[in-house]
Amino acid sequence: MRRQFEEAEAELKNQIVAMGSLAEEMIHSAIQGLSERSREPLGKVTRNEEQVNRLHIAVDSRSVNLIALHQPTATDLRFIIAATKINSDLERIGDQAVNISETTALLLDMPQLERKLLDIPRMAELAQGMLKDSLDAFVRRDVALARTVIARDEEEDKLKSQAFNELMHLMQSDASTIQRALGLILIARNLERIADHATNIAEDVIFMTLGKDIRHHAVQ
Amino acid sequence: MMDNTSLASLESRKLNLFYGNFHAIKDVTVRIPEKSITSIIGPSGCGKSTLLRIFNRMNDLIPGVRITGQVLMHGHNIYSKHMDTAVLRKRVGMVFQRPNPFPFSIFENVAYGPKIHDLASERELPEIVENSLKKSGLWDELKDRLSDSALSLSPEQRQRLCISRLLATEPEVLLMDEPCSALDPIATAKIEELMLELRQKYTIVIVTHNMQQAARISNFTAFMLLGEMLEFDSTSAIFTNPQHQKTQDYVTGRFG
After folding, report:
1. Nearest 5°: CA angle at B221, between A10 and B184?
2. Can you say how many angstroms the Cα of residue B83 is from the centroid of all Cα atoms in its chain?
3. Which residues in chain B are closer than 8 Å to A69, comparing Cβ atoms?
4. B251–A73 CB contact, under 8 Å
5. Backbone angles phi, psi at B225, to 5 degrees
6. Nearby residues of B156 by Cβ (< 8 Å), 6 or more positions away
7. Domains and CATH numbers, chain A
8. Which DSSP category does A71 fall into?
9. How far apart are CA A154 and CA A160, in angstroms?
10. Are A30 and A100 in contact (CB under 8 A)?
């Protein structure tokens, strides 16, 4: 029974990791399309989304089966609970990447702003790093790494507020920039949400590893 | 962590038990909170049934048994020489794995305890029998056949009858040693429901191999291994976030 459970658990972990890689690729491609002003990478975002959605359902279904058939407890139970929550976060990250890709497609029809992309590439890099590290922390049950992800969320929030302010000033001073600036505001918001989901994943890793719920509290 | 402010019905301090040279219970200090269900879990041979039997001195009858340390009931040492074991066993009753009704009528089984303990007159017995059978949920199905032999009952009814038999002597603590292991899942569910009702008035300590049962019904869980009590905590803590690695390994099925 134990071996059967461990095999199913390992498969669940592999599926989560596969989803994570797909989601990382989606963010990367969407941002690549934006910064290189190319439509070609955007196609990948759509293709990956279908796979992420399929895995989203598969992970939940496997988790329900594991709970029903094995009545897991302690670390086993916390692993499955964390897996289902991480599953939802990854699916939402995929959706955010799709939003970035769609907004990018609209922006590519218009000339680029003089200020170009402001700090958005930096925001993207930070969010992708947070996602990658939260998944590494999940695989390795690495609490210290998970905590660094949570700590980085503040910087992403700051960058987003900064981008919002700069883009608002731009719109106020030149009405012809409104459509493009709004597009970038949406993208900054999408990236900030991705960082929030990565933070959720890191919090789930800490719950899974230590049995401690640290959500809504300051990082110790 | 468990709420240590709750009143303890039973308490052991530095308790050790030896079967000859075999050290079966090692330094167990535990408080059993009153009016709640405490499960004792652990692999076979870990000492859980031995510990349960210590609480009403059932081990006294085994030759070569030596006990050190204290077991207190409301602060009084039950192993003091002034303790009358018949009185103790009336206050701390035990339900066994195999329902063991006496080969008497249903009525006589329940009336037996109050009779030998002189708790009631002949005239009062019918009321005591009725109340005890009601508390164990048997009254409605058996009230018209009280003179039938207890051996005619189903296994679940027999176990309920054994519980009624204890309740008739108005105990405080019910010790249950694998009370459902001889029952099918439906009968098990019914006994578990009965236990949940009984915990409003009685302190229940149950030894079980069925971890789902411990998780379902008990407020507190004690994990024992090789005679030691490695962990005692709220059942939810034991099954979601045990502190001891061995508890973790046991509840997740890595051994045992």
Report:
1. 80
2. 20
3. none
4. yes
5. -150, 125
6. B183, B184, B186, B187, B190, B191
7. 2-210 (1.20.58.220)
8. -
9. 10
10. yes
Count contacts between A and B (CB, < 8 Å). 29
CATH fold of B8-251 reads: Rossmann fold (3.40.50)
Name the token pair of A49: 């989304």
Contact state of A77 with B212 under an 8 Å Cβ cutoff: no
Which DSSP symbol is given to B6?
Answer: S
Contact B253 A2 (CB under 8 A): yes
Chain A residue with CA closest to B238: the answer is: A74
C-alpha distance from A149 to closest chain B C-alpha (Å): 24
pLDDT in tens, chain A (220 residues): 678 888 889 999 999 999 999 999 999 999 999 999 999 999 999 999 999 999 999 999 999 989 988 889 999 999 999 999 999 999 999 999 999 999 999 999 999 887 787 899 999 999 999 999 999 999 999 999 999 999 999 999 999 999 999 999 999 999 999 999 999 999 999 999 999 999 999 999 999 999 989 888 755 5
Q: How far apart are CA B78 and CA B71, in angstroms?
A: 6
Question: Residue B237's closest chain A neighbor by CA?
Answer: A74
Chain A residue numbers touching B212 (CB-CB < 8 A): 71
**d(Cα B205, Cα B174) in Å, to the nearest integer?**
6
Tell me the C-alpha to C-alpha distance, in Å, between residue A142 and each of A84, A135, A204, B221: 18, 10, 11, 30
In whole angstroms, what separates CA B19 from the centre of its chain? Answer: 22
Q: Complex ipTM above 0.85?
A: no
- CA atoms within 13 Å, Cβ hemisphere of B2: 24
Q: Is the torsion defined by CA of A217, A218, A219, B4 positive or negative?
A: negative
Sequence letter at residue B130: E
Tell me which residue has tokens 């004792």: B40
Q: Is A105 helix (H, G, I), strand (E, B) or coil?
A: helix
Tokens at residue A5, please? 């459970």
| Chain A CA closest to residue B254 | A2
B233/B238 Cα distance (integer angstroms):
6
Provide the 3-class DSSP secondary structure of residue A72.
Answer: coil
- Residue A2's nearest CA partner among A79, A66, A84 is A66
Q: Residue ranges per domain, chain B?
A: 8-251
Q: Give Cβ neighbours of residue B215 (< 8 Å, ≥ 6 apart).
A: A73, B221, B235, B239
Give the predicted TM-score (pTM) of the model: 0.82
Helix, strand, coil shares of chain B as percentages rounded to 5? 40, 25, 35
